[in-house]
Amino acid sequence: MKQIADFPAGLACPIPLTEYKNVLLAHGGGGKLTQQLIQKMFVSQFDNDMLGALHDGAVFPVGNMKLAFSTDSYVIKPIFFPGGDIGALAVNGTVNDLAMCGAKPLYLSSAFIIEEGLPMDLLWKIVLSMKTAAEAAGVSLVTGDTKVVDRGKGDGIFINTSGIGAVDPAAEIDPKNARPGDKIIVNGPIAVHGIAIMSVREGLEFETEIRSDTAPLNGLVERILKAGKDVHVLRDPTRGGVASAVNEIAQSARQGIQLNEEAIPIGEDVRGACEILGFDPLYVANEGKLLAFVAPESADLVLNEMRSHPLGKYAAIIGEVVADHPGIAVMKSRIGGTRVVDMLSGEQLPRIC
Amino acid sequence: MCLAIPGKVLEIDRNVSPVMGNVSFGGTQKRVCLEWLPEARVGDYVIVHVGFALSTVDEKEALETLKMFKEMEELGGDES
Amino acid sequence: MRFIDEYRDGEAAKKTAEMIRRVTTRPWTVMEICGGQTHTIVKYGIESLLPNALTLVHGPGCPVCVTPLEIIDKAIAIASRSDVLFTSFGDMLRVPGSSKDLLTVKAEGGKVRMVYSPLDAVKIARENPDMKVVFFGVGFETTAPANAMAVYQAKKLGLGNFSLLCSHVLVPPAINALLSSPANRVQGFLAAGHVCTVMGYEEYFPLAEKFHVPIVVTGFEPLDVLQGIYMTVRQLEEGRSEVENQYTRAVRREGNVPAQNLLREVFRVSDRAWRGIGEIPLSGYALRDEYAEYDAEKIFDVGEIRTQESPLCIAGMILQGLRKPSECGAFRTQCTPEHPLGAPMVSSEGACAAYYHFGEYRGEGQL
Q1: Which DSSP string do the residues of C25-57 spell out, in sequence order?
Q2: Cβ pair B30:A268 closer than 8 A
Q3: What's the ipTM?
Q4: Mind listing the pLDDT tens digit for each residue in A79-133?
Q5: Nearest-CA residue of chain C relative to B8?
Q6: Which end of chain B has fewer CB atoms at under 10 Å, N or C?
Q7: Helix, strand, coil tally for chain B in percent (to 5)
Q8: In chain A, whose CA is at the least distance from the CA of C102?
Q9: How many CB atoms lie within 10 A of CB C311?
Q10: What count of Cα atoms within 13 Å lies in the side-chain half-sphere of residue A250?
Q11: Residue C183, Cβ density class (10 Å: 0-12 exposed, 13-18 middle, ≥19 buried)
């Protein structure tokens, strides 16, 4: 095996070995460590404008069309959870990434890495779930790949989906386009998915069920784009939660963001779970949620349009883009003080303290 | 020290050892040990830390505390 | 949520802050003991609501932060063994030992599992009879009864594969040590409300009398903290040094007697080292001899532990309230939540982490 010293200078590992000798779970958390890994390892080597944008998908011209291309991998455990499973997540996740580019999702690919020993009927259930999800989203699964790995090497099943969509030519959706005055709208209560997953993980069982909010958002996005011409950014706050998403956008756009704690919708049961575990809901993953950054003149129009869609019934304006403190998101608390809403560091773990 | 949250007791099973119960936090229910609150009743609110109920919320005192804030508000208003 | 939201009311908070402003005529230094209170203060920006004359100092109220380095290193050594399934509260997983933390042990293949409750660790022991299940029992008096119950249950069930790595610390001896120090500037205390739900507050009367400091048992929501501060400052202004209870809805003077009985059954008071502060006599719990077979420190011989704190870390000064995190040279540079040099940057209750995440936002683009 080649040692690091064997590589020509310039190919030395960008993450100092003294910092992290091994990849940690937190590197997949969606917060600062993930960002660091992506920037130092991947972006630095595959350097190009599209990758550098670090948006949910890449948008590029083909002839006189604009296409969006996205990929996502699903490694979730447990494979089945209240409200969904890895299959539904895999389809909805890529559908949503494309929708966040302002694209109509068209075709999906799916690659399966299956652990030897996975029961066939489990695989069947997953596939049926993907079929249902694809039909609901109006996409076709057109190509794929299947691999089986030794028992003990695969955690049941891993799924990667990639997708292609057609971008609305009028849409100019890009995190860089957020500008001061833009209202930030969320389509419904936050922190549902992350808590649903936590609730079935060992040691954190609840007696009641909180169901994941996984859903295809392309229908809602179509409605939003029809309503407002000035939709500047769309983002689905998955890993790392709303906090990480707004931080990324604040940094891309080099603007500040101000959230209003009282305006953020959250279910009582999800709140209760967050309180017991000591979680901040702003950092908990969402799956059927999006943030829309809309010019102030169109905000109410878009909000009403969203509220008339089943996935936007509880849509609310939760904050706005400001010129102050560029790159930083802050939140006005219930009692009036303002605090910085930092990027997620590491994994959010239940605490006693 | 200590993340402890008030929840509502929905069920108590005094036939097991230690005594366990079902406590609701805004609708999310968790099994909680109620061994140290022999006087706890269904419908009471208890303070829960790491899956154990440490004390019952005294609703009268809770209201008193809030009343104090109201009185402060009024005093504040008068003196302004 | 009932009994939570009412104590986060903005109007009441502003009015209470106003009352504090009215009653403050001189500079005072007040310490809140509990990490949970530090969290609330920084999260809700409470300091910015207070008059400049009041200085809030953050105390060593984070059991995660004060767990001795030696115990962390022992935990890491035990967790690294192939025959051990190491269970712990989430808080401890990222606390840096001399060379790594428990999450790194997991990354390297160790069986490290997080639990919400000590009873979950007992369940894991029952379900894994071929593994030695160790539970990392840390905490103040709030958590001690729960950890005691785990050991008590293990003994009742005859679980030969369960043991506790015990690192408990007690609040009153810490206050005594802080107030006895010549460097002390603290004039009033907000005592930890949840510790007092278990222990009651009898122990604070001799302290208030000996050192002439007001001690107010305080809750954790923003209104509780503001009210606790108000009551403390009023005492200071009036020259009183009494023990008062702000958290009356949850704390009784005698505390929770059945929980205290279990504590006495399972633990004995012992001397303890506090990370960053040093040894404080009779400030911790150790397992009684009758429970020796459940004591992880006796079961596992992990060889000699040589501890090595980061030379840059000033956690001790911060835990004693002698410095603010922003005054540390490594704050935000070498020491961040991603690579913490000391415990207060890891625990979300630690002063350093609280300052880092919530910032000291002053408005108008100033941070």
Answers
A1: -S-EEEEE--HHHHHHHHHTTGGGGS-TTEEEE
A2: no
A3: 0.90
A4: 999 999 999 999 999 999 999 999 999 999 999 999 999 999 999 999 999 999 9
A5: C2
A6: C
A7: 25, 40, 35
A8: A24
A9: 8
A10: 27
A11: exposed
Encoded tokens for A44: 């630095």
Positions in chain C whose pLDDT score sits under 70: 347-349, 358-367
Predicted TM-score (pTM) of this structure: 0.88
Residues in chain C: 367
Please check whether residue A336 touches C, CB under 8 A. Answer: yes
Architecture field, domain C1-309 = 3-Layer(aba) Sandwich (3.40)
Note whether A272 contacts B26, CB cutoff 8 Å. yes
pLDDT at B78 over 60: no
Given a cut of 60, is residue B63 above it in pLDDT? Answer: yes
Residue-wise pLDDT for A30-82, tens only, equals 667 787 888 888 888 887 877 777 777 888 888 888 999 999 999 888 899 99
Q: How far apart are CA A51 and CA C172, in angstroms?
A: 56
The secondary structure of C283-301 as a DSSP string is EEEEE-GGGGGGBHHHH--
Given strand C132-139, what is the order of strands in its sheet?
A: C111-114, C84-88, C132-139, C162-169, C278-287, C267-274
Q: How many domains does chain B have?
A: 1
- Of all residues in chain C, the percent with pLDDT exceeding 90 is 62
Residue C1 class from Cβ within 10 Å (0-12 exposed, 13-18 middle, 19+ buried)? middle
Q: Please, is A324 exposed, middle or buried when counting C-beta atoms within 10 Å of its C-beta (0-12, 13-18, 19+)?
A: middle
Q: What is the pLDDT of residues C242-282, one digit of tens each?
A: 999 999 999 999 999 999 999 999 999 999 988 877 889 99
Domain boundaries, chain C: 1-309, 315-358
Residue from B2, B8, B28 to probe the interface with A (highest A Cβ count within 10 Å): B28
- Nearest Cα residue to C142 out of C33, C294, C44, C2: C33
Encoded tokens for C66: 């004060």
Contact C313, C330 (CB under 8 A): yes
Q: Is the peptide bond before A350 cis (omega within 30 degrees of 0)?
A: no
Amino acid identity for residue C138 in this structure: V
Peptide bond preceding A78 in cis form (omega within 30 of 0): yes
d(CA A178, CA A198): 33
Going by pLDDT thresholds of 50, 70 and 90, the confidence category of residue A203 is low
CA proximity to C28, closest of C203, C172, C239: C239
Could you tell me whether strands A103-115 and A157-167 are parallel, antiparallel, or unpaired per DSSP bridges? antiparallel
- Inspect the interface and report whether the beta carbons of A353 and C348 lie closer than 8 Å: yes
Q: Which residues contact A352 (CB under 8 A, 6 or more apart)?
A: A278, B1, B2, B3, B49, B50, C63, C89, C90, C91, C139, C143
Q: Which domain holds residue B44?
A: 5-79
Q: Tell me, what CATH number does B48's domain have?
A: 2.30.30.140
What whole-number distance in Å separates Cα of residue C318 and Cα of residue C334?
Answer: 17
What number of H helices and E strands is found in chain B? 1, 5
Question: DSSP secondary-structure letter at C325?
Answer: G
Distance from CA of C139 to the nearest CA of A (A): 8
Domains of chain A, each with CATH number or no CATH: 48-167 (3.30.1330.10), 175-340 (3.90.650.10)
Please report, as a single letter, which amino acid is at residue C68.
Answer: P
The neighbours of chain C, by the rule of 3 or more Cβ pairs under 8 Å, are: A, B
Interface check for B43 against chain C (CB to CB < 8 A): the answer is no
Are A67 and A167 in contact by the 8 Å Cβ rule? The answer is yes
DSSP state of C346: T
- For residue C283 the two structure tokens come to 């400030």
